[in-house]
TrEMBL record:
<feature type="modified residue" description="4-aspartylphosphate">
    <location>
        <position position="52"/>
    </location>
</feature>
<dbReference type="InterPro" id="IPR025944">
    <property type="entry name" value="Sigma_54_int_dom_CS"/>
</dbReference>
<keyword id="KW-0804">Transcription</keyword>
<dbReference type="InterPro" id="IPR003593">
    <property type="entry name" value="AAA+_ATPase"/>
</dbReference>
<dbReference type="InterPro" id="IPR025943">
    <property type="entry name" value="Sigma_54_int_dom_ATP-bd_2"/>
</dbReference>
<keyword id="KW-0067">ATP-binding</keyword>
<dbReference type="Pfam" id="PF00072">
    <property type="entry name" value="Response_reg"/>
</dbReference>
<keyword id="KW-0805">Transcription regulation</keyword>
<protein>
    <submittedName>
        <fullName>Sigma-54 dependent transcriptional regulator</fullName>
    </submittedName>
</protein>
<dbReference type="InterPro" id="IPR027417">
    <property type="entry name" value="P-loop_NTPase"/>
</dbReference>
<dbReference type="InterPro" id="IPR002078">
    <property type="entry name" value="Sigma_54_int"/>
</dbReference>
<dbReference type="InterPro" id="IPR058031">
    <property type="entry name" value="AAA_lid_NorR"/>
</dbReference>
<feature type="domain" description="Response regulatory">
    <location>
        <begin position="3"/>
        <end position="117"/>
    </location>
</feature>
<dbReference type="Pfam" id="PF25601">
    <property type="entry name" value="AAA_lid_14"/>
</dbReference>
<dbReference type="InterPro" id="IPR011006">
    <property type="entry name" value="CheY-like_superfamily"/>
</dbReference>
<dbReference type="InterPro" id="IPR001789">
    <property type="entry name" value="Sig_transdc_resp-reg_receiver"/>
</dbReference>
<feature type="domain" description="Sigma-54 factor interaction">
    <location>
        <begin position="137"/>
        <end position="367"/>
    </location>
</feature>
Length: 480
């Protein structure tokens, strides 16, 4: 409800305004002196202030700056008995909304007030949203920036979100960040790990149970769905939810009501749903292992996190730097440097376990490096160094028997090793093309020693295309 203040020493006028504004269903307050009006504003925010120019304790025009910066930052409508062009100019220069010369009609008052309120509401809607707190998420590359846009959209709405991505890409971290930046931040962030709860326990864990509902139910237990009331329910590994529970859960999503095991009454819970999975739910739904109707209701916003190997060199560097800093701080050591050969291995390894694997490996390397100020490639686990070395020498392909002869456009054949990312499950073609494009760019930079002219000549790329690719994959050229 809009809050209107009238500052005017004319008591009859104030009464008329009170009845008019009351009929418009807005809140109303009258102050008969400037001092009274300012004192009221110091305690109560207002949306619009009708301000008389000639008041017993001063000139209303002089008070405009104080009124406009008071709480609520109200719009000001000046009231005057005289049509004074100089006064009107002064008032408009001070940012007032309108200037009404008494006597004015009810229609004029309504019109001016309605317009001021509409203007104000549009201004408020267009106000810059609060900046997001992304302090726990690291990564500035283009792939992550795209995700931040969706994260912001998710945080500023109450929509259901489905986060997909390989294991260890940060799905839970993103879910938590959405919650912490949302209107529900004061509520609980409740994690349900659908993969680790047994089918028999899942129903009572989710919905709670009544004492005596089954053997071992020694007291009433509140379920996770109720715990998330006013907060966020995060269904991790939702693809692992047993079909029997999917049915009951679908109802919870539709009705926001559920029945604890052994209870006759239903309970309500107002939670926001975020689900995550590294499985292809669409494919599962086609095979009949995931309910299609639940799938439709799982999300409005879908956020796909990129695997670490697609996130660009700078993201791997900054994730490593920040995690090493955290590890050193945690164990009371001075910050360790990363030797160039160490970074080279980190950049060459494909990280199938993504950020989680990177963090584990960094922890091992920090421990192995002991008191040394620098971490070298030698401090990394042997399997990782061997894999990177074999790939560099082209032996990995032979050892795994994954060399391939392919015919290429324009005729001829090419014998090549199957890239690492194609040896397990095939990634979508779009992702693979992006990976190859980034690889091509890195080799191009290395072979030409970062000379833009040579790179454009060798690749046949136009200047604009070339710089667009550098930007897309977050590559920078060394300054000459
Ligand atoms: N962008 C990032 N910035 C900082 N830390 C990250 C980032 N992405 C992931 N991590 C860290 O990596 C680890 C794994 O992240 P998380 O558990 O969120 O991944 P996940 O995708 O949910 O994994 P899973 O599918 O196995 O459950 C956590 O320690 C998390 O803090």
């Amino acid at each position: 409800m809009a809050r209107i203040l009238v500052i005017d020493d004319d008591v009859d006028f104030c009464d008329t305004m009170a009845s008019l504004i009351g009929r418009m269903d807005y809140g109303f307050h009258a102050a008969y002196t400037l001092r009274e009006g300012l004192a009221f504003l110091a305690e109560n925010p207002a949306d619009v202030v009708f301000l008389d120019v000639h008041l017993p304790d001063g000139n209303g025009l002089d008070a405009i700056p104080r009124i406009r910066t008071s709480s609520g930052g109200p719009e000001v409508i000046i009231l005057t008995g005289l049509g004074d062009p100089d006064g009107a100019e002064l008032a408009i220069a001070a940012g007032v909304w309108d200037y009404l010369v008494k006597p004015f009609s009810v229609k004029q008052t309504r019109l001016s007030l309605d317009r001021a309120l509409r203007y104000r509401s549009e201004k408020q809607q267009a106000r810059e949203p609060e900046p997001l707190n992304l302090s726990s998420v690291v990564g500035e590359g283009p792939a992550m920036k795209e995700c931040y846009g969706l994260l912001a959209q998710a945080a500023r709405s109450d929509s259901r979100v489905l986060i997909t991505g390989e294991t260890g890409t940060g799905k839970e971290l993103f879910a938590r960040t959405i919650h912490e930046n949302s209107n529900r931040a004061k509520g609980e962030f409740v994690v349900v790990d659908c993969a680790s709860i047994t089918e028999t326990l899942l129903e009572s864990t989710l919905f709670g149970h009544k004492k005596g509902a089954f053997t071992g139910a020694e007291s009433d237990r509140i379920g996770l769905v109720k715990l998330a009331d006013g907060g966020t329910l995060f269904l991790d590994e939702v693809g692992d939810m047993p079909l029997s529970i999917q049915k009951s859960f679908l109802r919870v999503l539709q009705e926001k009501r559920f029945r604890p095991v052994g209870e006759t009454r239903e309970l309500a819970s107002d939670f926001r749903l975020i689900a995550a999975t590294n499985r292809n739910l669409q494919e599962m739904a086609e095979r009949g292992t995931f309910r299609q109707d639940l799938l439709f209701r799982l999300w409005t916003i879908s956020l796909k996190l990129p695997p670490l190997r697609h996130r660009g060199v700078e993201d791997i560097r900054s994730l490593s730097r920040q995690h090493i800093r955290k590890l050193c701080k945690g164990s009371g050591m001075p910050m360790k440097e990363m030797a160039p050969d160490f970074v080279e291995v980190l950049l060459a390894y494909p990280w199938p376990g993504n950020v989680r694997e990177l963090f584990n490996v960094l922890e091992v390397a920090c421990i192995v490096s002991g008191e040394n100020k620098t971490i070298y490639a030698m401090d990394l686990p042997r399997e990782i160094r061997i894999q990177v070395m074999r790939a560099a020498l082209g032996e990995g392909a032979e050892a795994e028997n994954v060399a391939l002869d392919v015919s290429v456009p324009g005729g001829g054949a090419l014998s090549c090793d199957i890239p690492h990312s194609l040896r397990g499950n095939l990634p979508p073609l779009k992702d693979f093309k992006a990976e190859m494009e980034a690889l091509y760019l890195d080799i191009l930079i290395r072979k030409t020693d970062g000379s833009p002219q040579e790179m454009m000549a060798a690749s046949g790329l136009s200047k604009s295309h070339f710089y667009a690719l550098l930007k897309k994959y977050g590559r920078t050229l060394k300054p000459l």
